[in-house]
Design brief:
135 residues, 6-stranded antiparallel sheet, acyl-CoA hydrolase activity, Thioestr_dom, HotDog_dom_sf, hydrolase, PaaI family thioesterase
Amino acid sequence: MDDIKAFALKIFQSQAFSQFIGAELVTCSKDSAELALAVQDHHKQQHGFVHGGAISYLADNAITFAGGLALGGNALTVEFKINYIRPAIGTRLVAKAQARSAGKRMAICQCEVYAMDGESQKLCALAQGTVVPAT
């Protein structure tokens, strides 16, 4: 992979759900990825907080990108856990994932999801997942 960002962006742009929900691939490296979501009313649940499913999607996809890049190509998440720390209140969510351990067959990744509101940044979720090559 000569150009990691171009490779990742091509995959991201082919994900219909990512496009539908309005997510953005902000940056990536050989073992990390950062995704963001501009919060809209349709991302919220009945109490006005961002729905856990939207937070979970963002963490899962960031983990898959971090692990997939660490493994050298396309990948799938085979196991995923998330802890919601506080309600996500803000105008933007940012998920920052890092491969903590990567071998030939799997990568273990962690992700922090932050709710942003102006200059305020609050950790709202922590996630961990196992990623394997898609082929």
